[in-house]
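hey can u check if this looks right to u? its 197 residues, i copy pasted from the old doc so theres a chance i mangled smth
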Amino acid sequence: PHVKREGASYFVTFRLADSLPKAVLLQFERKKAERTRRLNEFAKRGEALNDSEEEIARDFRRKIERYLDRGAGACHLRRREVAELVANAMRHFHESRYVLHECVVMPNHAHAIVWPMPNHLLGDILKSWKQFSSRRAKKIVGMGEEPFWQPESYDHWIRNDDEKARIARYIRNNPVIAGLCARPEGWKWSSAYRPQS
């Protein structure tokens, strides 16, 4: 279940429909379930295990991120006009419906730290980004009726300033980690972008 808190900032990830094949996701989920089951078995016996639910969830997310960063799928967001479309959709209602603290558009997914303003829901914000960009992007790349985005997005309630700073570093450095640029400031579809003069 998605935990929502009024006045909270969220780390969100949404990805292209073909970026994470179901078989790969099921494999990751199976390994996560095995670790969770093992953790619970140890807890029932009163034994300590050098693992936690938080670590299991974090490792699961990291596996997905590493897989996405390899550039799986058609990577439609690698096209300049599509990346620009998605980045602009994310920035469009900044300071009117939400505050966009950080964002990056990668070849097959996008990340953001967003704070929904009062009377605006995170789900509605993500839906507007995805609906607006998918209609236009599908025309650019010549897609038919098949989905452009995965229907489900990942969101995580950011609990404190340290966590927010860690996630912000991750977002800014994601293009560097994926080998797309040498410095965060060099990736045009990122809040870290600084044009060279």
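The mean pLDDT is 92.
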